[in-house]
Amino acid sequence: MKQSEVKELSTAELQEELGKSQKAYSDLRMAHAMSPLENPLQLRKVRRSIARIATELTKRELNG
């Protein structure tokens, strides 16, 4: 998810997307532990998406 997409979502949507992304990351890590993923860069992509969403949520919380 790109930063421009993250900014357009409401706070409730961001929290929902954060939960989905964290679940997806957990599932990918588990699958990668069992047998190597075909594209291990998926892990980086999801992890960075989680960070973008969390950063935007924190920014909104601090700004009011």
Automatic annotation (TrEMBL):
UniProt key word Ribosomal protein: yes
Database matches in Gene3D superfamilies: 1.10.287.310
Molecular-function GO term, any one: structural constituent of ribosome
Keyword field: Ribonucleoprotein, Ribosomal protein
Cellular component, GO, one term: ribosome
Pfam family, one: Ribosomal_L29
BP-aspect Gene Ontology terms: translation
Family recorded in the similarity comment: Belongs to the universal ribosomal protein uL29 family.
Name of the molecule in the record: Large ribosomal subunit protein uL29
